[in-house]
Specification:
Layout (H helix, E strand, L loop, with lengths): L2 H19 L3 H12 L4 H22 L5 H10 L7
Length: about 80
């Protein structure tokens, strides 16, 4: 299994857990909103995964803790790609 596939699977596992535990609730709200906008489940989860990737990148780059407010803000901006 390639590294990118492992990371992708881990990101989708994070999304699955967020939805299962409704934590943060904005993940489910975003998934439902994107589906209502015409995106299929896979597309919506990929977009949510981009927001998770931004958080992982920021943690690794700056050694700062996870920023839930930034994550939620990026979710709310979808389908616009998160860059911050």
């Amino acid at each position: 299994m390639e590294t990118n596939e492992i990371l992708r699977n881990q990101i989708f596992e994070i999304i699955k857990n967020q939805l299962k535990h409704n934590n943060p609730p904005e993940t489910k709200i975003t998934l439902d909103r994107l589906r209502a906008q015409g995106f299929n489940d896979s597309q919506a989860r990929q977009m949510i995964g981009q927001c998770i990737s931004v958080e992982i990148y920021q943690i690794m780059k700056t050694n700062e803790p996870y920023n839930n407010a930034r994550y939620i803000e990026n979710l709310q901006k979808l389908p616009k790609e998160p860059f911050e």
